[in-house]
Structures are given as C-alpha cells and as structure tokens.
Amino acid sequence: MIIIGIDTGTRTGVAAWDTEKMCYDMITTTTIDKAFLIVLDYLSRGDVVVRFEDPRHIGGRRERAQGAGSVKRDAAIWETFLKNNNIRYQAVRAGSTITKMDEGYFKALTGWQNKTSNHARDAAMMVCGWTENMTKVWEL
To answer: Does pLDDT of 121 surpass 60?
Structure first.
C-alpha cells in the first residue's frame, strides 16, 4: 500500500510512503494539477490512501486558520478530488505533524538523501513510518 502525504498550497508537497518496504518511494514539490496526476498514477498501480493538510480543521486557533485562505481552498479542492475518485483519505489537522524541518535534519531522520523543499518535507512527515494497520479509519 502507498500512503501519500500532501502539503497543500501554491507549491504542493507530495510524498509517497510504501508501507511494505517501509520507505519513501517519492518526495517532490509540484503544482496541484500535477499532484492530482501523481495520485492517480499511484492509484492505477494499487491501493492508495492520501493524507492532506487541512487548515479547516485547526481546532481552537481560528485566527491562524483565517490567514490560510488559499490553503483552505486547496484543502477543499483536494477533498472533492479524492471523493470524486473514490480514494480513501484523511484530512490532517494543521499543526498535528512535524513541520518546517531543515533539510539536514530531515536527511538524518529519514535517510532520504535527495534535495527537498520545505513543502515536500512537510508532506513527507505526514506519512513517515506509517504502516497498513494505521489506515483503518479513513474518510471516503
């Protein structure tokens, strides 16, 4: 199974974690339309679940959520895309995963040695270490 992490925004971070090999298959930064194609490509190869950052579910910090208008819009677009394509997903509350990690620490922590942007690293941290049995509760 592939778990895909999405860091929503103008520059969309995408990371694919292989639950069988317990390693990243891909970490990149792209546009939202190309990120959709990446998800569909993985879906054509097998079982996929997507975790995407959703500032609409920030819980108690409304003032910060209001400053993220375009990211909130992107989260709604992702949710619609995933539902329309019957892809299992989880909307991840903003701030519930490790973010803004510098590249050196990320390389040391994950073993991923290719260059990454902060968006790609944020997406990667949404799925790092996930196993198939952690995907029991997903929205559809």
So the answer is: yes
Distance CA 106, CA 99 (A): 10
Q: For the whole model, what pTM was predicted?
A: 0.83
Cβ atoms 17, 130 nearer than 8 A: yes
Provide the edge-to-edge strand list for the sheet that holds 48-54.
Answer: 23-30, 12-18, 2-7, 48-54, 88-93
Q: Are strands 2-7 and 48-54 parallel, antiparallel or unpaired?
A: parallel
Q: Of 87, 73, 5, which Cα lies nearest the Cα of 40?
A: 87
Identity at 132, one-letter amino acid code: E
- Domain segments of the chain as ranges: 2-135
- Give the DSSP H or E segment for 81: helix 69-84
pLDDT greater than 90 at residue 21: yes
CA distance 79 to 11: 17
Rg of the chain taking only CA atoms, in angstroms: 14
Question: Is 2-135 CATH 3.30.420?
Answer: yes
